[in-house]
Amino acid sequence: MSLTIWCNGAFDAAAMGRLREGTAGHRLLLASGAPASLLAAGASDPALAEADVAFGQPSAADCLRFSGLRWVHVSTAGYTRYDTPEFKEAFRARGSALTTTSAVFADPVAQHLLAAILAGNRQLFASYRDQLGDHSWPTSERRYAARLLTGQTVVMLGFGAIGRRLAELLAPFGCTLYALRRQTRSVLGVRIVAEDNLTQVLPLADHVVNILPENDATRNWMNARRFGCLRSSARFYNAGRGTTVDQRALQEALESGRLAAAFLDVTDPEPLPPSHPLWTTPNCYVTPHSAGGRWDQDKAVVGHFLANLNAFAQGGELADRVI
Q1: What is the pLDDT at residue 38?
Q2: CATH no., domain 4-103+295-313
Q3: Which of 105, 113, 129, 247 is 20 to 30 Å from 262 by CA-CA measure?
Q4: Tell me, what's the pLDDT at 32?
């Protein structure tokens, strides 16, 4: 089956070469203006009207307008721009598919979260502050403040590809794992929690890991009431989307000591302005939406698409299918 494939991905030269090679049996249309990064929205492009398949970050409006489009594969794990009732209903009605690149980013994000959990437990951030500051040597303070991850309780808000991989990485530590999930079917080693029961679980948490996507139902989902359920020794991590957290409530929880620490890879807005108070809020640590990063990112993203392209052309099952 020969397909017309439209792409606006911002990939390095090696990955683009692999894309051309992997689509040699098809017609490849490259958009004239690629987004600055995988996270940026693509501009409208009339050439998409010719395509059977779109790869990258196509305009959501274009995807709806050009009904001949049979499959959209976004180059990110998130798909907020396409996560609307209008988009889902239109794609389902015409039998079109939407897939993501979650499989590529699940492992790096999960490893990033595990690194933050371990670094906080082992007092690495506090010791680094000392190195940058007065070069003190508070041996007893650091030793007696250190915690073991072994046997601690981790509550995950969301349980998609990232949550599943994080659960695998935490398994050797014998943690008690809870996960908020719309589908409440059981998962080996993880206690699935419905939203109505979450406030009973939050007080048990040593670590609360937010990996919720952005949509109308999740904006400011982690609010003052939910922060108020946590123990003062708990730590909060956000690798989902910045808009899912009431950042003012988070700041107040940290400043008041009602929350031990926060580790944010995503914020609202992004980039976080230099004058934003979260930069200087006590025990708040920020990384620049880099949790999903990996040295071979472009190669892996293109490889994931090409594997899915082969499945699509053969009538097989698509990986990371949303619609």
Answers
A1: 65
A2: 3.40.50.720
A3: 105
A4: 82
CB of 72 closer than 8 Å to CB of 58: yes
238 in Cβ contact with 290 (< 8 Å): no
pTM beyond 0.85:
yes
Measured distance CA(82)–CA(71) in Å, rounded: 13
Q: Where in the chain is the domain with CATH 3.40.50.720?
A: 4-103+295-313, 148-286
d(CA 251, CA 306): 43
Q: Which of 21, 89, 195, 270 is catalytic?
A: 270
Query: Quick one: DSSP state of residue 115?
Result: H
pLDDT at 36: 60
- pLDDT < 70 stretches in the chain: 36-39
Print burial letters for 170-197: b (CB count within 10 Å at least 16), e (below 16).
beeeebbbbbbbeeeeebeebebbeeee
Known catalytic residue: 73?
no
pLDDT digits (tens, 9 = 90+) for 151-163: 999 999 999 999 9
CA gyration radius, the chain: 21
The reply to whether 141 belongs to the active site is no
Q: What is the pLDDT of residue 1?
A: 77
Task: Please report which residue ranges of the chain form alpha helices under DSSP H.
Answer: 13-22, 60-65, 85-94, 102-121, 124-132, 139-145, 161-170, 198-201, 224-227, 247-256, 297-313
Distance CA 193, CA 127 (A): 36
Which residue is catalytic, options 141, 289, 294, 304? 289
User: Position 113: which residue type?
Assistant: L
DSSP 227: H
Amino acid at 288: P
| Residue 289 bears catalytic tag | yes
